[in-house]
Amino acid sequence: MKRSRDAGLAVDSAEAWRIESGVSSVHLRAKERPVTSKKWQSILVVVLLVVAVTEFGIRGPLRIAHGTGWNDFLFPYIQAKAWAHGEDPYSPRSLISDWPSHVQRPPWVESDAASGLLELKRGIPTPYPLSSLVVLSPFTVLPWSVAITLWIVISTGAAVLSPFALISLCGVAIADLRAQVFLVAVFALTPLHTGLGTANPAMLAISLTVAAVWAEHRGKLSLAGALLAVAVCLKPTVAGGVLLYYLVRRRWRVTGIACAIAVAVAGLAVLRFQLAGVPWMASYIENTHRIFAAGSLADFARPDAIRFNMINAQVLFYSLLGNAPLANRLAQLLGAGLLGLWLWLCYRQRAPSELLEISAISVLSLISVYHRFYDAAVLIWPLAWCLLLVERRSVTILITAMIAPFLMPGPAVLTELASTGRIPSLVVNGWWWNAIVLPHEVWFLIFLTLLLLGFMFRPEVFSEHPPAVSRASE
To answer: What is the pTM for the complete model shown?
Structure first.
C-alpha cells in the first residue's frame, strides 16, 4: 500500500511539474503527433518517389532502348544527314536514299513515296525547321546505333537533371518535403515518359530552357543565351515562350546571344543549300501542306480518336462545332487573345514573378499551335512554381489539380476502354464524349492558362518565396 501511495505521489508530482511548466499531457501528445505524422509523410513520399522513378525508367528510356529502329529521332537524323550532304531534306527521295542501312525500312515507305502519300499518311519527312537539322547534324557522323544511344543518354540525363535545377533555382533543399513532392510529380508526368519513350527532340529542348534559366540566375549569361538558342533551334514551339519572356523582361544580353546564335544557325543552313543549289523552300512548303492536309496524321478534324493525341485547342473547338476552318480560327483568336493578355500583365507587373510568367507563356504556347501530348512536358514549369515557391496551399492544390490529368495518357486509355466495351455505350455515344471527355486535356490546359494569368493579375491572392539565388546585372 505504501508503495502504491508513493507511486501515486510520484505521478501527481510529475503532472504538477508539467502544469507548473506549462506543459500538460495533452500538449505532450500534441507534440508527438506531428513528429509521427511527418515520419509517415516522409515514408509515403519516398514510396511514391520510388514508384514514379520506376515508371519514368520503364516508360521512358527503357522503352526507347528496346525500340531503337523506329522513333521520333530517326527521321530528323535522316533529314539532318541529307542537309549535311547538300540534299533536299524534305524530299521523300532523300529520306529513302539516306535511310540507315541496318535499320529495316517498311515496304510501304517506297510505295507511299511513289504515290505522293508519304507525308499525308505517315507524317514523314518531318517539317522540322532547318535550324533543328543543323543542330542535329553532328549526330549524323555517327552510325545510327551509336547516334540513337548517345541521344537517349543525353535526353534522359537532361530530363533527370531539370527538376533538380529548378529545385536549386527556387532555393529549396532536397531534404525539404516540397522538393520531394515536386520530384514525385515530375517523374510521374506522362508527357515526359512519352517524349523520352519516342526519343522526341522536344524533351531535350524543354530541358535546355530549364538549364538556360538556371544559368542566367547563376550569372552565366553567355551560357544561358547559348543554351536557349539551341533549344529554340531544336524545337521553337516549346522553347520560344522562354525566349519571348526574356525579350519582354529586357534581359538583353541573354536575348541578344540567343537570337544571334539562332540567326547564325539558320543562316548556315540556308548557305549550305545555296552552295549546293538545292531549291528547298518549295519542297518545305509542299511538305508542310501535305502533313497538315485533311485526313493526315496532324489533322485535328480526323474522324477517328487519333486526333485526341493532340492538345491544341483546334481539337476541342472542332469537337464542339464540327467546322474545321472555324475551329482553327477560334483557336488562333484564343491564343492571340491570351498572348496579348500575358504581354499586358507583364507590362503591368513591375516586380515580376519569373516562374509564374514563364509557366503562363509555356502553357499558353500549347493552345493555338499544333502540339502532341508529349509537348505538355512544359508543365514542369507550373509544377515548380506551385510546389516550390507558393506558400498558399489552396493555390498549390488548384494548380496541381489542373496538371493531374497529365499523370496518365487519358485519351488513349479512355479510347481503349471504350473499344473493349468497358465504358457503357450510353456514355460513348453521348455528345459529351467527344466534346468534353476525350479532349479533357485541352480543357485543363485552357483552365490552367486562365488561372496562371489570373494569378499574374492579382498576385496578392497568393504568397510566394522568391528564388534564393542571385542574378548578375546585365
So the answer is: 0.89
